[in-house]
Amino acid sequence: MGRCRLSVWEATINLFTTFSISC
């Protein structure tokens, strides 16, 4: 799940998953 979209929903999911913030 590598998306360059910083949305409230996406951010929450990422934080709950495993900091998957890779553009």
Automatic annotation (TrEMBL):
It comes from the Eukaryota. This is Uncharacterized protein.
